[in-house]
Amino acid sequence: MRSFLTAFGVSWGIFMLIIIMGLSMGLENGIKSMFKGFSSNSLFVWGQSTSMAYAGFTEGRRIRLKIEDADFVREHIEGVKIVAPRAQLGGYGEGNNVKYKNETGAFSVQGDIPEVRNIYQWLQVDGRFINETDQAEGRKVCSIGRRVKEVLFKDKNPVGSYISINGIQFMVVGCHRSQAAAEQADRDDQQIIIPMATYQRAFDGSNYINWLAVECNDDSDAEVVEKSIKKALAVKYKVHPDDPRGIGGFNAKKMFGPMQMTFWTVRGVGWFVGLMTLMAGIIGVSNIMLVSVKERTKEIGIRRALGAKPINIITQIVMEALVLSLIAGYAGLMAGIWLVEGIAQSPMEQETFKNPEVQFSVAVAALVVLVFFGCLSGFLPANRALRIKPVEALRAE
Q1: Strands 42-47 and 80-88
Q2: Confidence (pTM)
Q3: What's the distance, CA 216 to chain centroid?
Q4: Gap between the Cα atoms of 258 and 245, Å rounded
Q5: Which segments within the chain are labelled E, that is strand?
Q6: pLDDT tens figures, 2-17
């Protein structure tokens, strides 16, 4: 019973460590999935209303970016890989009347260049995405989001069909879907993407865009590039250098940086709690081995008298402690993994909690820590056993 209870303490420590690390991975996977679907080294810049008077312009002036600003950014800002101007019919968040035969729906219509897909990383479900030829020739073609397909076409393949956007016919060349989750996925899957040149001729004609989507080079800092773009556009549009509102922007680093810090914190807390619980179990193992050494004083004395070397006594005590720790730890490890896998197979997953898992490196690290502390727990009892003199041990009752 004494050995069992001690082993249970070790098993519980490993079990807690595995559970905490597995659930933290589920939280991390869930949060990352919400922002999956666009380049992690990307940023977005748009015009806003100024909050300061400057260069003869009054406060409250609306800054509206134009399609040529994409070329301006490419030419003047270092670290830029792709610049995709984006124009949304009706403005951000607005739906437009779209028809296919007797089916209708309100969806977002975007004017884009083909490179925008490298930033948002949509997956093609049917057909193809808009291409350079579509853009160069201003073709009336479009790639529709998955939700658009479900509403207008049901289970039918939409490629080759014509839809009406505000009374103008467009041929569907493909269907795409978002890799993101939650609201971002809903927005992406309800978009209809048409070539920017077609958008300008059919709906706008003013060359105004809603925002610039930018992907930075792999070795560039998106936050630094964002500041450079906002500063250059502020000069171009005569926005006060200290005006925080004239040019708006957002970069993925602002989002991923704090999240990554949160993940590290959760992992750190998980390891701390698990190791402290494991340490309590290991101390129990050490104590039980001390009791065992005391109870076996006569046995140790006989072995020493018959010529057993100190290394033999140390090996015996340490191996007993290690075996006890390993058996208990392995049981806790398996129980933790089974529970995490059971949670992963259950229907309890939410948008912010997906695919809890125990990484192989965590399991290996837990076993290494267990072996180390298991050996350590046997050294103190072994050292005490070596201090027993054979003559005194043989007299012990």
Answers
A1: unpaired
A2: 0.65
A3: 19
A4: 23
A5: 42-47, 80-88, 96-100, 103-112, 123-127, 141-145, 162-165, 168-177, 191-195, 211-216, 247-251
A6: 677 777 777 887 888 8
